[in-house]
Design goal:
single chain, 103 residues, mainly beta, two-stranded antiparallel sheet, 48% strand, elongated
Length: 103
């Protein structure tokens, strides 16, 4: 697997990507169908609101990735903030896959 940095958002992405999965910026136009097709293999959506609407509630959205040995290989804080009153946050986590590089 080889990676590169998206010139638009500076995220680490697969070198084979024609479109950045983070910012959706186009990276190259040399492939007729936009490079390897990716598909969403897994997706979950949820939401949360303040537990007590009269009191502000701080939150932190964190993503952790573990390997087959249950060792953490990546950990990223995606967003932090405070909910007040009846505010709500909705989040979606999607895992996309594409055909890998051929050796």
């Amino acid at each position: 697997m080889s990676t590169r940095t998206c010139p638009h958002c500076k995220a680490t992405i697969l070198a084979s990507a024609s479109v950045c999965p983070g910012c959706k910026g186009h990276l190259r136009f040399d492939k007729p169908h936009g490079g390897p097709a990716s598909k969403a293999n897994w997706r979950v959506e949820g939401s949360f609101t303040a537990e007590r609407p009269a009191d502000p509630m701080d939150y932190c959205i964190l993503i952790s990735v573990r390997n087959e040995l249950n060792q953490e290989i990546a950990r990223h804080v995606v967003n932090v903030g405070t909910l007040q009153g009846d505010q709500r946050r909705i989040f979606t986590l999607t895992v996309e896959t594409a055909d890998g590089e051929k050796p």
